[in-house]
Design goal:
- This protein is mainly alpha-helical.
- The chain has a domain of 57 residues.
- It has four helices and two strands, in the order ααββαα.
- It has a two-stranded antiparallel sheet with strand order 1-2.
- The longest helix is centred in the C-terminal third of the chain and has 29 residues.
- It is flat, with a radius of gyration of 27 Å.
């Protein structure tokens, strides 16, 4: 007679083991880590720029616009990669389609340059 084990039991063991390792590492670093606080260490530091002003300070919209444009033009390179993978199968149809695609991107890029979307004055 064989004892049946719940199929989720190994997942439970992995979960508990993960919690023990993470908790043990956190407690060990808290107990064994150096404790010499000073104002420089406790100061907020992000992206290499010291904090200026308050957290409620307004940021320029150009920051968000540049981030959105970067994501937009960065994602378009994924489509070019897919085209490159299927280049042999698409023949001339693929070349014409990617020329139209890149042409549209170039027109969009020229448009945002002329509108001054990337100027940080």
């Amino acid at each position: 007679m064989t004892a049946s084990i719940n199929p989720y039991f190994p997942i439970l063991i992995a979960f508990v083991l993960g919690l023990l390792i993470a908790g043990g590492a956190t407690i060990a670093s808290f107990l064994l880590g150096p404790k010499k606080p000073n104002p420089a260490k406790l100061d907020v530091y992000e992206c290499g720029v010291p904090a200026v002003g308050t957290a409620r300070q307004r940021l320029s919209v150009k920051f968000y616009l540049t981030a959105i444009l970067f994501i937009l033009f960065d994602i378009e390179t994924v489509f070019l990669y897919l085209w490159a993978v299927l280049f042999d199968e698409l023949k001339w149809f693929g070349i014409i389609e990617v020329a139209l695609f890149v042409g549209t991107l170039v027109v969009g890029y020229i448009y945002i340059l002329r509108r001054g979307a990337l100027n940080w004055d």
